[in-house]
Write the structure tokens for this entry.
Amino acid sequence: MKIELLLLTTLVAAALAAPQRTEAEAEIISQDNNIEPDGNYQYSYETANGIRGQEQGTLKQSSSPDTSDVIIASGSYSYTSPEGVVITLNYAADDENGFQAQGEHLPTPPPIPPQIQRALDYLAQFAPNNRRR
């Protein structure tokens, strides 16, 4: 009886000591990677807790004379917020426009009031590149 109790206690302790998977340690349920010799690539992944991502990139010659080759990349990722809303971010990055992100959850500037827009339009008439010679 003592040996059985000791064995049962050992098994329970071992089960409780086993690592428990948390939300931060979500299992990858699908993953795809493809890297070409010419520098082009694409990848995608999905985790058990609903996080998804994908990106593709192309190697190209830089528009800047100081840099030889750059990667032009675009992709997206999505996850579910604690409030249950699916958050999706789409992005593009290159050597001319930098990193540009788009998503419904990103803040946007307020609209320019009509009076201010009229004043800006008026001042734009006097900008050096708008003057007639």
Summary: The first strand starts at residue 28 and ends at 35. The helical segments are 2-17, 114-124. DSSP finds two helices and six strands in the chain.
